[in-house]
Specification:
The protein is mainly alpha-helical. Helix 3 packs across helix 4, helix 7 packs across helix 8 and helix 8 packs antiparallel against helix 9. The longest helix has 24 residues.
Length: 219
């Protein structure tokens, strides 16, 4: 029976694999090749992580370092800006930039192998911003749209930084996103309650004309 690997080696494995991935595509990585990088067999990887995919997920989480970033619906504009930068920004840090690159690589193909890590993370980010928008005056439908637009724009900034880093200031773009969301929420909060209710109803209700068959409203 093989001896169990030292549990304290797990962080060291993550660090070495992260370094290896800086100039290696995920598609070129296997448990066996990672074993060679570590100077060992594949056994420690399987023991500590179970699979190559689980190891890479652990590397992304380690590099991203956003697990503690939170945003509550009642937080102010400064907290929104801080959250956006914590989750999507800081790409001048090589480790953060690598985490974003790996997330894009994983997300691009995960639907082909039945995984949903990046999709789940994407929807969680949308839900967080939508809750904040609702807490600052937007109705549920408008908050969802604003949040989706914001996350899509933030991802676009990240992608632009990967392909054209010299001409992309991600953090500045994220601050602009925060300003736009705050303005959008402030405008909604300033509307009379009756007006907001009427607008929401008009967006959700089917269009009807005399003698016409109702048609579903578009989202």
């Amino acid at each position: 029976m093989p001896r169990k690997p030292d549990p304290t080696l797990k962080p060291a494995i993550i660090e070495k694999v992260a370094l290896h991935l800086r100039d290696t595509k995920i598609e070129d990585v296997s448990v066996r090749s990672l074993g060679r990088v570590l100077g060992t067999s594949a056994y420690p990887i399987v023991y500590h992580f179970g699979s190559r995919d689980a190891l890479i997920d652990a590397v992304v989480e380690h590099l991203a370092g956003v697990a503690t970033a939170t945003l509550d619906p009642g937080d102010g504009p400064a907290a929104l800006e801080h959250w956006l930068e914590a989750v999507f920004g800081g790409l001048d840090d090589p480790e953060r930039a690598l985490a974003v690159r790996l997330a894009f690589e994983l997300g691009a193909v995960e639907s082909l192998d039945g995984r949903d890590r990046e999709h789940t993370a994407h929807r969680a980010h949308v839900a967080t911003i939508a809750a904040w928008c609702q807490g600052h005056g937007l109705d549920r439908s408008a908050a969802e749209r604003a949040a989706h637009d914001a996350v899509t724009a933030a991802r676009g900034l990240q992608w632009a930084s990967l392909v054209d880093p010299d001409h992309t200031d991600v953090d500045a773009g994220l601050r602009t996103l925060a300003t736009d969301l705050v303005a959008r929420a402030a405008a909604a909060a300033a509307e009379p309650t009756g007006s907001r209710t009427a607008v929401a109803a008009s967006q959700q209700a089917p269009a009807r004309t005399a003698g016409a068959t109702p048609t579903p409203s578009s989202v």
